[in-house]
Fold this sequence. Notes:
CATH class: Alpha Beta
Bound molecules: iron/sulfur cluster
Order of helices and strands: HEHEHEHHHEEEH
Number of helices: 7
Low-confidence stretches: none
Radius of gyration: 17 Å
Strand order of the largest sheet: 3-2-1-4-6-5
Shape: globular
Largest sheet: 6 strands, mixed
CATH superfamily: HUPs
Mean pLDDT: 91
Number of domains: 1
Structural class: alpha/beta
Number of strands: 6
CATH architecture: 3-Layer(aba) Sandwich
Distance between the termini: 40 Å
Oligomer: single chain
Amino acid sequence: MELQIATPPQKRNVDAESSTEELIAWSLDRFADRRMVMSTSFGMEGCALIDMYAVHGKPLTVAYIDTMFFFEETYRLRDRMIERYPHFEFVNCGTTLTPEQQAEQYGPELWKSDPNLCCRIRKVEPMKGALAGADVWITALRRSQSATRANIQVVEWDWKYQLLKLNPLAQWDRPRIWEYIRAHDVPYNELHERGYPTVGCTHCTAPVAGASAGDYTRVGRWNGQTKTECGLHGDGI
Ligand code: SF4
């Protein structure tokens, strides 16, 4: 299905009662002369949010961090998103440190011996580069994704990266995201239909028995470890 450029309702200001659509329209208007960057890992939420911004027909930088440990399915999804949203600039901000170089410098299977360091090298530090010079950071985080995300605000200041952070989907739940994906024929990772509620690096993502595409749980991430977040959001690592 081709992307239909819509004309959503415009609103001069937003408040706690504003809809997601109004917030998105407001942000594109309010920060038109600022550098806005949306980050995505091509999760279901991220794909939906990209689509919600895309219908406005305005350009936007979409940064993603290729850890070089993506699933093949994720690379295929990335290519579909780039093709579907040609007025967005998708920028890979991933590290240039190859897995082989990482093994040489830090030892084999760093994701097992020190996953926090691995995430810092392959995600957190590259994100600093992705957000360098940005005024506004747009994410697809939701409160109900985890305890560490329970208190995120729709509009908040990010102390770690020192910029305004917009979380337009903060109040959404997974079934609503899934409904949006299907209603708008948004591309999504085929792994969601094969038991992967979320999809990260190959080394740190496992399928969850009985999970369907509309379910959300992070138990398949960093399976068997105490780690639950990569450190991109909040104080992290
Ligand atoms: S998710 Fe795993 S493999 Fe990916 S950067 Fe973090 S520790 Fe490394």
